[in-house]
Amino acid sequence: MLLDKRSFLSFLGLAPIFAAAQLSGSVGPLTSASTKAATKTCNVLDYGAVADKSTDLGAPLASAFADCKSGGLVYVPSGDYALSTWARLSGGEAWALQIDGIIYRTGTDSGNMIYIEHSSDFELFSSTSEGAMQGLGYELHADDNWSGPRLLRLYEVTDFSVHDFILVDSPSFHFSLDTCTNGEIYNMAIRGGNHGGLDGIDVWSNNIWVHDVEVTNKDECVTVKSPSKNILIESIYCNWSGGCGMGSFGSDTNVSDITYRNIYTWSSNNMMLIKSNGGSGFVENVLLENFIGHGNAYSLDIDSYWASMSAVDGDGVQLSNITVKNWKGTEAYGAERGPIKVICADGAPCYDITIEDFAMWTEEGDSQWYSCESAYGSGFCLQDSDDHVSYSATTSTVDSAPSGYSATSMAADLTTDFGSTVSIPIPTIPTSFYPGATPYSALMADSASTAAASSLASHATVSSSVVSVAASVPSAVAPSESIPAATSAVVTSAAAVAPSPAVGAQEGSTTSAPSFAAPSGAGNSPQGPSGASGFGQKGQQGEQSGQGEQGEQGGQEVCYV
Ligand SMILES: *[C@@H]1O[C@H](CO)[C@@H](O)[C@H](O)[C@H]1NC(C)=O
Ligand SMILES: *[C@@H]1O[C@H](CO)[C@@H](O)[C@H](O)[C@H]1NC(C)=O
Ligand SMILES: *[C@@H]1O[C@H](CO)[C@@H](O)[C@H](O)[C@H]1NC(C)=O
Ligand SMILES: *[C@@H]1O[C@H](CO)[C@@H](O)[C@H](O)[C@H]1NC(C)=O
């Protein structure tokens, strides 16, 4: 599918706009869902499924998969389904899974509700953009149980996409991409409880493009873990979350060529947290570009002594060639948690760190700090030298706002969290994920003009939405205080080709004097193992609230991921 997009874009002369240098090649399925459906369609209703919200979908789904796994489309029509035995779908090729219904968790096993492994040329989507998994995590969370199942996991899947799909209230993590290759994830809404351990998207994979995703929770928004290479993450709306991050990193970290671009973060623990504590290996060639934040505890937070994980053996993960560029907005309380914190390992000082075009200011009080330790490069408190010897933390405090810090807000920022003890409503997938950026692809529900429920209809229309790509490069996004969103200016080239619906219509207004509600829970009231928000140089770490990350790497549970 992306192949099609790319050739179409080249035809329009728009290809460079992809700026997809961070990817190593094409991503997405090799065969369209319509072709797969024409080959064979396996409707779960023909395999014993009943959309009555009580009959177990597990066996019918497995049977439908068995019949269509060698080429075909497994179809879950609209309706409410119950999943009480988890689906482990292994070894498919040239297949798609179209879930237009809503799958409710009724089982109590841990593990993964839907686990897709050893598949190639795969697509998971909802043609109505309303298909969802409702994990009903609150039922477990109300009993203080955080070890229920994850919703969706892909393991060793190649040439694939997951899109137009909604994940709600996972008992544990929502979506993990484990050792996958050539994938595209887009047009998703993920909404979990307001607690640590309920990650949005975790990816440790190669050549993956994640874009146009909204996450609400209180842990990872979209996070890169090790090993990873060639990951491009764009237009992410962390709408009350933990925030995006990289890590936690331990031994033999191997992460390179990562770009985060157009990341909007509201009421989160941080805008970007690169976290480790001891360990070894490297993180290199990282670009963190076009970030807007409001109401967050931390902003840029590189913490190589992250106290929410136990220290592991090693001198530290070597960080190098990290560029932080065009960050705007405000943080919750800059005197307590300044917008720049670059704490590198004394045993492995980081280098080639660049911080430029970075202007953030505090929402509370009238000062903020920048802090660096064993960090080399250019900008702010970074030391500019080639010797790369360790140095202890230096903190500078500023008492006036940098010019140009003001940045637009999204119109519909969540004003209160969903807690973790009552049912969480299923959201709709937004059509804007970053101020001024139009999603690369229209929602399937909007692009399929007829017969939305038909996969045949749904896929043929993708190319019509492709032209909106041009709009999604808002390098000029609204640092200005007065213009109501720089959105319209950015979009013209796309609009000239084909008017795309409502660009900028819903991304709200520029706020020059943000007065956001106190971000309770955004790192201010840590629930995690580290507890108190002790502040002193090293005490600044370790309050990523309530992470309690029971991570996973290669299928193993480790305590610090
Ligand atoms: C927590 O919930 C999961 C999933 O229902 C269950 O397997 C596990 O036994 C529960 N743990 C506790 C301590 O109750
Ligand atoms: C890091 O991972 C890449 C694959 O992404 C691999 O080719 C390389 O050998 C790894 N490097 C180390 C030092 O493990
Ligand atoms: C630094 O990383 C960028 C990607 O962010 C890459 O384009 C560039 O080649 C890297 N520089 C070096 C010296 O490796
Ligand atoms: C942000 O989250 C809240 C709660 O989920 C939702 O009402 C609002 O629509 C979201 N914003 C957008 C732009 O989707």
Secondary-structure topology with pairs:
Blueprint: H1 2-12, H2 33-39, E1 41-43, E2 52-56, H3 58-68, E3 72-76, E4 80-83, E5 87-90, E6 93-99, E7 102-105, E8 112-125, E9 132-134, H4 138-141, E10 150-168, E11 175-191, E12 201-216, E13 220-224, E14 228-239, E15 243-249, E16 253-266, E17 272-276, E18 281-296, E19 300-303, E20 318-331, E21 340-343, E22 350-362, E23 368-373, E24 375-378, E25 394-398, H5 444-447, H6 455-460, H7 462-466, H8 487-497, E26 551-553, E27 556-558
The structure holds 2-acetamido-2-deoxy-beta-D-glucopyranose (NAG) (4 copies).
Report on the structure:
InterPro entries: Glyco_hydro_28, Pectin_lyas_fold, Pectin_lyase_fold/virulence. This protein is mostly beta strands and 561 residues long. Helices cover 11% and strands 39% of the residues. The strands form two sheets. It has a 25-stranded mixed beta sheet that branches. The protein has a two-stranded antiparallel ribbon with strand order 26-27. Strand 9, helix 4 (138-141) and strand 10 form a beta-alpha-beta unit. The two termini are 33 Å apart. It binds 2-acetamido-2-deoxy-beta-D-glucopyranose (4 copies). One 2-acetamido-2-deoxy-beta-D-glucopyranose (NAG) binds at residues 206, 227, 229, 254.
Short précis:
It is an enzyme of class 3 (hydrolase). InterPro entries: Glyco_hydro_28, Pectin_lyas_fold, Pectin_lyase_fold/virulence. The protein is mainly beta and 561 residues long.
CATH topology of the largest domain: Pectate Lyase C-like
Number of self-contained structural domains:
2
Could you give the count of β-strands?
Answer: 27
Overall pLDDT: 81
What sort of overall outline do the alpha carbons produce when their principal axes are compared? globular
N-end to C-end Cα span: 33 Å
Question: Do you know the CATH architecture of the largest domain?
Answer: 3 Solenoid
Strand content: 35-45%
Q: Helical stretch count?
A: 8
Please, what is the CATH homologous superfamily of the largest domain? Single-stranded right-handed beta-helix, Pectin lyase-like
Q: Which regions are unreliable across 5 or more consecutive residues at pLDDT < 50? A: 1-19, 449-561
Helix and strand content put the structural class at: mainly beta
GO cellular component, one term: extracellular region
Subcellular location: Secreted
EC number: 3.2.1.171
Signal peptide: 1-21
